[in-house]
Design goal:
Number of strands: 10
Distance between the termini: 26 Å
Number of domains: 1
Structural class: alpha+beta
Strand content: 25-35%
Helix content: 25-40%
Order of helices and strands: EEEEHEHHHHHEEEEE
Shape: elongated
Largest sheet: 8 strands, mixed
Number of helices: 6
Length: 194
């Protein structure tokens, strides 16, 4: 399905996948090892160019709850409810304001993540802990999978979840940040995105 704002949409339960250009997140990848040495960039070419898959969760609960099926019984992609107006508005807002969103997100992560993930961070060398307390250092500690746009609207926008992989902060559960526009709502493991 082609959308005038979202571009090409592909059904990928539990939602629609679109590609979003976010150059402000382009330098966000796992750059630092536990010994503070710089690691090789292993991202795919799309992410290196600042293009990420955005997941817009199905707004129709029938499809959301049946995420184990590609489509409803006997249905086709055309039968799926399209992304909602609040999801489209949030996608557009994110694309247009991604520099401000990235600034707020990484400022909050640098300030709060060392305390939230203290069970891991406290065991890291002092030099790595200092890196994690800066915006630039935090951008080198997490790697963005791609934004997830929620189903429920608040003030005409849906909350956007940012799932990150991070060997430094939490290898097993990852890092999740939930935002409403350019305001951080919650930081924790990726399960905060649920």
């Amino acid at each position: 399905m082609k959308h005038p704002i979202l571009g090409e949409l592909r059904p990928s339960p539990p939602g629609w996948l679109a590609t979003i250009a976010m150059p402000a997140f382009q330098t966000c990848y796992e750059r630092w090892g536990m010994d503070c040495r710089e690691l090789r960039d292993t991202r795919d070419e799309e992410r290196r160019q600042g293009r990420f898959p955005a997941l817009l969760l199905y707004t129709d609960a029938r499809y959301f709850e049946r995420s184990d099926k590609r489509f409803a019984p006997g249905g086709k992609a055309d039968d799926l409810a399209p992304p909602s107006d609040p999801q489209i508005a949030a996608f557009d807002y994110l694309a247009r304001n991604q520099a401000q969103v990235a600034h707020e997100l990484f400022t909050a992560l640098a300030r709060e993540a060392p305390g939230i993930f203290s069970f891991i961070v406290d065991d890291l060398p002092d030099e790595v802990q200092r890196l994690l307390s800066t915006v630039e250092g935090m951008m080198g500690a997490v790697e963005l999978d791609g934004p997830v746009l929620g189903r429920q609207a608040e003030d005409g926008f849906v909350q956007v979840g940012f799932p990150f992989h991070s060997d430094l902060l939490d290898t097993e559960h990852g890092v999740g940040v939930v935002m409403h526009r350019d305001r951080v709502v919650e930081i924790g493991q990726q399960d905060v995105l649920l």
